[in-house]
Amino acid sequence: MANRPRLARWSMSKHQWLALIGGISLFIWGLSGMAHIAMVLFGPQQAEFMPPMRAVDMSAAQPVETVLAKAGIAKATAVKVVVGKDANLLQVTQTPMAARRYFELGTGAELAGYDPRQAKFIARHYLKDTRPVAEIVHQTAFDADYPWVNRLLPVWRVRFAGGDRLTAYVHTETGSLAAVNNVTKTRMQTVFRWLHSWEWVPPQLEWLRVVVITLMVGSLAALAVTGILLLVAIRRGKRLPGSKGWHRAMGYVLALPLLMFSISGIIHLVQSAFERPTSQMRMSPPVNVADARYPIERDWAEVAAGLEVASLSLVEAPDGRPLYRLGLAQSRDAMPKGEHDHSAHQGHTMPMGDTAIRNARFDGISPTGPALYVDAATGRPWPQGDRALAKALGRGFSGAPDSAITSMEVVTRFGPDYDFRNKRLPVWRIDYGAPVNATLFVDTTTGVLADRTENWQKPERYIFSFIHKWNFLFPIGRVGLNVVVGVFVILLLGFMAGIGLVLDRRRRRTRT
């Protein structure tokens, strides 16, 4: 190849010129990236991953309408039965940011100020920590310790007694552990924010932060490219002795990972600069619970005959009527084979005791079980099911007609499109074409928009997930994935940054 010597000289000159800034950049972002990996591997971990579960039994409950009327609640954002420490409770969310209210099912009595107690119960459930609670605070805004990427608000910040300052962030509406911190993780988060994302830069200088980081991380990409060109242009029959030999040999292994980290990091940085840092979660407008006159508890034995009801909530039908949504636990040996055809039920009602209700396979079936709907005003079955309700929620949150929908499906696993920080599963994924050009994820259990992703954001999300965070290694598990990534980062720091800077220093000394 006639141009190989010229290519080698050009690549070598650029590679050497970039060595100092590239080596320093690799240490800064490599070490701070290791802080994130250390948080995952050695930070506080939850001991329990499944939420508290207890079958719903309304047979001895007070009428929901009566309970809410006595409490002066005519409208509510969410009404649902939740698992409490000793018994199931009726939970009411009147406004999205307010503390939830709770009522005993059997007596209808309100448990005043119970939301923090529920938060403590949930925190102990997930962390299995029996220490006293030193502090509990209702948090309605994101901050440095609980940033916006955690998505859920409001949360209760529950700090346990002890020098480790173990802190759980609990979202009582979903019964979720939104985040968990301790002293060690807080310190590592600080290192990550200061060195990896440079959050110390004032907002008015955001443009400067993007420019400087792009140039510094871009030097890593340029180092990787010129290094690859050197490997192609200069062929050696045997390895060079000493540090030069090790630097070159590891270049074959580490050039591609360095290119992956740097390019994907720049893309993430630039796109993040155009996105407003905020959670996309939204709750539906309040439901008129005063119209929920049907005493479902009176007919519970008939309604729930042969069923294991895992959840009960009040939601709003597309025409505005209130509905009871019965989420059913599904037995492992009774996985449904397909969807139920609801067209046969249009225009007439099914009696509450009809086996067609108990055996119906409604749209939106998932491993957590199907859902059945009962008109909360009349007690009649509402046969349209989850798909129809999801479409109605999509219309409300997007402002677009159903004709704009290009596809719908139930999501039962977290992934790059809908990740674990959202906490809610299952949800409906609704893909919209023009004029929305976005994907909405809606939870029919309480009528919540869990997340929204614009079409223009999707390529970067896949790039960041698979190229920067290496989630293509998901089959080996979270711990295995972080160990592998950590090993590659350590090799990059040692053989590329460390040896590379030593070689650059020697070269500079030789020149002088």
UniProtKB/TrEMBL annotation:
The keyword Membrane applies. Keywords: Membrane, Transmembrane, Transmembrane helix. It comes from the Bacteria. InterPro entries: PepSY-ass_TM (IPR005625). The keyword Transmembrane helix applies. The chain crosses the membrane at residues 20-43, 207-232, 252-274, 479-503. It holds the Pfam family PepSY_TM. This is Peptidase. It comes from Blastomonas fulva. The lineage of its organism: Bacteria, Pseudomonadati, Pseudomonadota, Alphaproteobacteria, Sphingomonadales.
